[in-house]
Predict the structure.
Amino acid sequence: MGGKIKVYDPRGYPPKVVGKRLAPRLESLDGKILYLVDCLFDNSDRFMEQLRLWFAEHMPAVIVRIIKPRESWVEDPEMQAKIVADGHAAITGVGL
Amino acid sequence: MGLALGLEQAGIPTVPVSTHVFARVAKATALAYGMPTVRNAFVLQPVVGRSVAELRAYIEGVDPVSKRPFMQEVIEGLTRPLSEEDYKGATFERSTPRLLEPDTEDNLQELYIQNRWTDYLPVILPTEERVERMLKGTKLAADKIVGRLRPTAFREYWEFDVEKVAVNAVMAGARPEYLPVILAMAASGTTARSSSTTSFATISIVNGPIRNEIGMNSGIGALGPYNQANATIGRAYGLVSQNVQGGSVPGESYMGSLGNFLNYTACFAEAEERSPWTPFHVDEGFKADESTVSIFFGGWYTQSGYGPRETWKEKFFRCLTATDHFSPPLIVMDPLVARGFAALGMNKRSLIEWCAENAKLPAREYWDDQSIQSVIRPRAVAGVEPYASRLKAAPDELINIFTPNDVKIVVTGGETQAAFKIFGGMYTWRGPGASLTQHAAGRIDEWR
């Protein structure tokens, strides 16, 4: 082919990424409320129950609560507020 | 993942657990959120279908990504003190240039492929001259913001303007007069490149005067590669979606396990003049002289048949109950089929009601479905009807799997055969991450 040509970039405009720090970590989980958030994907309820049982057997001093959002793929501000209000840590899953 | 990031920001140390095939997606999502050091933990894929004992083995086993014990990853993720990097987060600009550095046509074609900006079929390079010509297809300013898209709910939205849509329309081989249709599709808030593991596509149907003005096909081969407008409008919607949302890259921003042929292109016009019934857009509340494009999120399954023959009820029953019922049916029928039903004394509404009334499954079969469990069951548990009633049914009780509002009918085809197809096609729910601020059918005339 011959000379050089100018063409457009087909991509859209991404938002600026603003750095956010992780939450401070806990020294220990003992006596703390740990929420296991079942994201509602198929079989994640069974996974979270097994995780709860693991803590009960191996780290009984952790207060473990299973919680579920009202729907998959939809933000649930009430559930998030509850975790923030009385939880100390969380594990979410299984899924993205 | 989005929830985990939000909890971290709210001060709750959180470990998101995913299956290992999502490791790259998790990393990309965390980076785009400005929290690149999120402490993920991974288990093997799949979780779906695994027994209690197998899931327990995942928990007591090794994280397949870090190769360290899974529970060690989880507990340390919540308790290991933060490093300097954790405190920083990551702030950066990701601007995209308007024009690329000049180069030869061959090199630029290769660059587009390497950057995954194509669908791996040849594209027309969007030169200044070609884009300028494309922009003559609308009176709107090139810098008018059209909307924003994202591949799924937990990813960030990217914004785009008329010019970006025109660029991708050129790449797809579209003509300027098609641009208003493509703009209406892009403005729908629905991506044609969903990252869902369920390999969704979109099926787009054009109604109103613009069908004939731009020469769309609603005759022989309407769903096939026999018309420039049908082919390139559908393709342009796919290219627009993948590029303006920041990509559709397997393993990073596309996770459809099987993929979907309909992602290449899936757009056609309704044969309004040869249908015995009202056009689809009129059923949905638009005026007959308005031009619209209706987007169905689905394409997951296809059923086919002829008719209506003597045993059409049995055939329809089998087709409807063989669908993956989380995705309601879009019935596309040749005018011969529509007229056949009309001759039986049925109109579109009565046929839809027949489908909803008769498509029944034992509750046990209805609920034993991955997407029904993930999407519908939580709504049922929350008391949302009709799902809540379906959940109360005994396992062998027959339950309706669709409501009349779920079932849609569109007429197209060349009358060489009394054929119909039933596609998975969700009209009102348009996928995770879709912006549902607009009607599922876009008004094309606003984009002329």
